[in-house]
Glycosyltransferase involved in cell wall biosynthesis (Pedobacter cryoconitis), 368 residues
Amino acid sequence: MKIICVHQSADMYGSDRSFLQVIKYFNQSGDFEKITVILPRSGPLVAELEKLGVDIIYMNLSLLSKTYLMKLQWGKIIFPLFSFNSKRKLYNQYDVVYVNTSVILDFYLLAPFLKQMKVIHIREIPNKFLSKVLSFLLKCAGSKIIFNSNSTLNSFKKLDRSFVVHNAFEGFSKEFTTAIEERPDGLLHVLLIGRINGWKGQDFAIEALTKIRSSRVLLRIVGSTSLGNEGLVDELKKKVEKLGLTAQVEFLDFVSDTAGIYAWSDVVIVPSTKPEPFGRIAIEAMSLYRPVIAANHGGLPEIVENAVSGFLFEPNNMDSFVAALTNYIDDRKLLQQHGLNAKRVFDEKFSLNGFYQKIDSVFKSEMV
C-alpha cells in the first residue's frame, strides 16, 4: 500500500517530533511500499525524514493558523485552496491519507472526495467556537480520529471512530539517562523549554520569580518563536531586565538535540496558561529522571501525578506555582525521589513500544 502524510510544520518541536514518530512506525511496519510526506516548507524536520528514505513534497497548505487569523492574513488561508484539483489528484494516488493536525483546511474540503482510508491525528485543543466548527468538519470528513489525550478528545463534540493514543517518547541516549545529582553551585536549575508564544507560560514564570528573589533558583528558557512573532523573545528579555532578574534568568535559542538541555536541569516546568492538548515536554523530562511542575489542566494531569512525579499547580496562579517550586528548593531529597518516580511512570506509560502497538491497532482495524 501507499500512504500520504500531511504535516503543518517543518520544525522539531513537540508536534513535529510526534509526527516523526508516526512516520517511523509507518516505515518499520512493512505495510507501506511508498510513504510520501507533504510539508509547507523546509526545516529541521526534513533532515530526519530524509534519513527514513520517504518522499517529500513541498506544498502550500491552507492552515487555520492563529497568527493568520489574528493578523487577518486571509490570503495565506484562501490562496492555497485554489490548488484543490491538483491536491485531489495527488491524494487519490494513495491508499491511505494521514493528516497530523486538525488545522489543515485543505483536508476537510478534500475529504468527501477521498474514498480511501483517512486518519486525522488531533493534537490541539481549540476554543469553543472553533471546536464546534472542527467537530462539524470532522463528522463530514468520514475519517478515523486519533486524539493525543482524553482532554483533547473532550474538547470536541462526540465523534464516531475516535481513539485516544497518548504521545510517547523514544528516549535519549544512555549517556544522559542518569538521576539528579547534587549541584556544586547550590542552585536549583529550572528549565522551561518549547516554542515561545503568548500562552506557553514564559511570561508567567518570569513574573513568578519576583516572589522568590532570595532563593537560589536559575531559570533557563529555551525556545524560539513562530514566524511573525519574533518580537516576543525581545519583550521577555526586556521584562527580565526591568524586573531585575538578569542573574536568575537566561535564554537559549531552540536546539534540535535537547538531551543536554534536559540533563542540565533539576526540574522542568510546564506553566502553560491555556490547556496543553498533551504535554510532550513533560514525558521527555520524565524519561531523564526529571520531575515536572505543570499547570493542572489539559492533558498534563494525565501525565504528572501530583506529589509523586512532580507537582500540579492551579493554572495561572503564581502563588500555587511558587509553592510547588519551593518544595524542591527546600528539599533536594524530595526532588531526587520524584525524579525516580517520574522515570518509572515514563517507562510504564509513555514508552515507544506501547505507542506503536496502539497506533498499529488503529490502522490495522481498517486494513483487514
User: Anything to note?
Assistant: The chain has two domains: 2-168+351-367, 174-349. The chain has 15 helices and 13 strands. The mean pLDDT is 92.
